[in-house]
Amino acid sequence: MAVVTLQNIVKHYESGGAPAVDDVSFTVEDGEFMVLLGPSGCGKSTTLRMVAGLESITSGRLAIDHQLMNAVPAKNRDIAMVFQSYALYPHMSVRDNLGFGLKRRHTNRRLVRQRVEEVAASIGLTAYLDRKPHALSGGQRQRVALGRAIVRDPKVFLFDEPLSNLDAALRVSTRAELVRLHRELSATMIYVTHDQVEAMTMGDRVCIMEHGRVAQIGTPMEVYLNPANAFVAAFLGNPPMNLMPATADGGAVLLGGRRVAAVAAEGDVLFGIRPEDLTPTDDARAAVISGRVASLEPLGAETLIHVDRGDSTVIVRGPRVPSARLDEPIHLRADPGMIRLFDAATGEAIRLPEEAMT
Amino acid sequence: MAIPRDMNAPATALTDVPPARDHANPRSAIAAFLTPALLIYAAFTALPVARTFFNSVHLVVPNRPDEWVGFTHYAELWTDKIFWKAVHNTLTWAVAAPILEVTIATLLALCLYAKVPFARFLRVAWFTPVLMSYVVVGILWMWILNYDWGALNEILRGIGLGGLAQPWLGHPATALPSLIGVTTWMWTGFNMVVILAAMSSLPSEVLEAAELDNCGWFAKLWFVILPLIRPTLLNLVILSFIGKMKIFDLVWVTTRGNPLWSTETVSTYVYKRAFQWSEFDLGYPSTIAVVWFVIVLAGVLLLTAIFRQRDRIEY
Amino acid sequence: MAFASDRTAVASRPRISTAALRSAALILFIALYTAFAAGPFVWVASMSLRTTTEINADHYAFPWPMHFEKFAVAWTESNYDTYFFNSAAVVLAAVAILTVVGGMAAHCFARYRFPLKGVVYFLIFSTIIFPPQVTVIGLFQLMVDYGLYNSRIGLVLVYVAIQLPITIYILEAFFARIPGDLFDAARIDGYSEWAIFWKISLPVALPAISTTIILNTILLWNEFLYAVVLITDDDKRTLPLGVLRFMGDQLEDVGMIATGLMIAIVPVVLIYVFFSERLIQGMTAGAVK
Questions:
Q1: This prediction's pTM
Q2: A225, A244, A278 — which closes off a domain?
Q3: Is A57 on the interface with B (CB under 8 A)?
Q4: Chain C contacts to A (CB-CB under 8 A)
Q5: Could you report the per-residue pLDDT of A166-179, keeping only the tens digit for each?
Q6: Closest of A327, A329, A246 to residue A280, by C-alpha
């Protein structure tokens, strides 16, 4: 199918203003499902729209299958896009919506009809072919939008938050359907979302963006386990990674006066640990963190324990019925392999030696 | 255009990337979409206005080159009694008519807002007069205002006020008020529909809140409804003002400015001076038009400024 | 007024009489105004079916017997067929051009960003408040220069020009509400900007388009000033000019003039009967904010 290459892509809306997308480079391999993830305003949608040809590229290069695309208009890029609002043509039936793009490319009406019906059958829309979009449910509209992309058999599929207008249950099932679709079509897909669950469950790789820049690219597990910087650490996970100010003296990290990790760095650092990597312990001396239980949030499968350690709060993922009691002191042990350190000034991750210590 | 085959070739310089094209705003398409409208605008609106301004400082006589006369036309205008009479008439019209129209229209809209029976039908019926051309309306009202058998005089005689019957359009004192009445008849329904639409789109919570605050109907009207629809009312006043400043057809069909210039408007005067009085000079009427243009512009700006200022105070 | 009347009637017994009085006054006011607004039409319609002799006997009698043949007489004995045809042709052509040209410009203003957009929009839109006097003299001279004076084609172009700002204004407001994703989807589906205008913008904006079509039809059907300045030949006159001329010819023949008036009114009334809501929408579109 297709390889999509972005090289130093920059987007300025107004000359002189801050760039919406700033020096973004990555390659989406043939058949890969790449997720662009980030908070709103991070430039992920703009990046996608530049790939689509809906926005011009201020500088940098965009290539599909090694062919420079910067100046190629959207209609000649052989891509399909699914929009957050679905963007179904309200004055056309489902059949015409699906066939609209094909008709522009093929003059053979019979072939267009055949292809439309084939795709409609594959996504369960056959019964609705003659309805107008306003007579469809949200989920059905979403499927039409999907079908409109599939029917074209494009080189690249682009998705711009396609699930965010669905209700929770439908979102889960559509997620699974998209994964199945990706496997069947083995097409190159770029998927924009602000929802980290979608990113984790669907992406072959995730590209996390912040302020128009790429914060980290990697497989979902990589970015979750080894965030490249404090932003990714704090953005991923629900609740996200606990980050606490600490200091390094050149040999070890000191958190609240305790040596919690060995590191060659010096100066202010951020000590990071995920909530599931902290466990309550009775042994105050083995603990990394001590504090007082500020609140308990039972979620059914687990209970989140909020620990007040004076200047900051730490969240711990505890069992369904935790032993911790409200307002009582608590000591927490950290899984030494899961401790992450970040430079307090730049936010960049600091590499730890393999054998960390408590 | 050269397409580099290998993206991974050393990208030392980006000079081979063609200049960025705005995909979202393609220049050629914008030009294609806008050009016809701009051409028509230039040829039939902008140029004529410019030509009128040009005329106003020239003597424009057929088969002779235009002669620069500076501001003599403007000086002449200053002492032109008929012009000032026309200005007076038109301004009277443009001030009285909006007040009448919008006030009556508000009352009518309130009636329908109160959900009287047949409200939908009444709304459609009251709107009808504005659909007629001024020519039709003019002829029709010449009959209604006819001295011998016009409906108005017949009604007056019928209710024992026959002494008030008179040739409404033939008397200098009643001609202009009669015509103002005609435009009020024509435009009130229009204003009513707009006001009713504005009232209907008021958030019902506000009215319910007012009710909880123990508002009587008058208090509700005065303190809640009218302030909320004030932008609409302002808009209608300005629209009506502009419309009356332009008025030509109705006067032309009914009185042609008679009797004794009592219904002369600026429009009819310009028309007479340009096309009727066989003076063969288009310069002077153009001067009238230009001066009038400035007055209308000032009026509209003044009206908006007054209302804007009050808006700012309220927020 | 009456929004309280139904409640007070139930809530407080002693005030029933005032409430009843109030609604009686309300109904009287409404009835009077309705007679005032609609009476003139009923009257002219009744006169259009009566001969002048009948009318002179009693101006306000019921039209019986109905002389429908008067319409045929008015149609054939004056140039009414020509006037009617001229009006229809000029209005039809102007409205068609307005819809396409205005639609294109509105699409452009709503869809694209370009330098000086605000200035261009302001220039076009500000002409709505221009008094016609300031254009009409220059226009007269220029139409002579263009060779379009006393020509129906010239009148069509002028009509397009005077209705263009309000048409663009109404359509632009509607186009701007169409989500931009729709156009992006069509672009990706492979359509050119031109095709997108025809296949997406216009069909989706059909309600607004029909509003402007009806509005322009009515206003231009009634237009008088530019027609009287720019047309001189009798066989090129539009209906409003024709009606006035007809009145001059018939002078005291009130019955015949009434018939003539009805011929001018009927098309408008027909449109109104079928599209009253759309028409009201169109006429008031510029005033609602």
A1: 0.84
A2: A225
A3: yes
A4: 179, 181-182, 184-192, 195, 200, 203-204, 206
A5: 888 889 989 998 99
A6: A329
